[in-house]
Write a structure and sequence with these properties.
four-stranded antiparallel beta sheet; globular
């Protein structure tokens, strides 16, 4: 991907809003953009906020096909039917493919990177519903003091940023000096 194509995609992504009409947080915009460039369909995100115990940034993603299959199965009257089970399985498989793409990228990122376990990015998988990229220790924010929570947030934001920088270096061409 050229830097220009990345900038165009970022501009397009910056216009997305959530159900409340709020735009993507600026601190996670590059991550959402590069994940979309990698074929990961994001549906929600947060850069992390010190006044909320999220513990760090996160990105929720879901295959558009999974939504299509889930929508089709949810209108069926018999949730025990073979058709319902088939559609559910298709939705799970579609989301699993999205998760697998992200896990391959994380494997590359962590191949030569050592960080504390609580800062390491992980993927929480929720079957046909969605998956979530987040720092493993984000939940610790619930038991930390405000100062510890702010420190945890800064470390987790830095880890997400490092992953973002890795993906951009991997996927966006760098101009060669002449």
């Amino acid at each position: 991907m050229t830097p220009r194509k990345f900038a165009e995609l970022k501009q397009k992504v910056s216009k997305l809003t959530d159900k409340l009409g709020k735009p993507i947080d600026r601190g996670i915009l590059d991550t959402v953009t590069i994940l979309r460039a990698c074929g990961i369909h994001t549906i929600g995100s947060c850069e992390g906020h010190v006044d909320r115990p999220t513990g760090g940034p996160y990105i929720i993603f879901r295959s558009p096909n999974a939504k299509k299959y889930d929508d089709a199965k949810n209108v069926l009257p018999n949730h025990a039917s073979a058709e319902y089970r088939r559609l559910r399985k298709q939705a799970i498989m579609a989301n699993t493919r999205q998760t697998q793409k992200l896990l391959i990228l994380l494997d590359g990122f962590y191949a030569h990177r050592i960080v504390p376990a609580n800062q390491r990015l992980i993927v929480e998988y929720y079957g046909s519903a969605f998956s979530e990229l987040m720092c493993q220790g984000a939940g610790l924010a619930h038991i930390h003091s405000p100062k510890q929570r702010a420190d945890l947030l800064n470390k987790n934001q830095a880890e997400m940023r490092a992953f973002t920088d890795y993906l951009i270096a991997l996927k966006v061409e760098t101009p060669h000096a002449t």
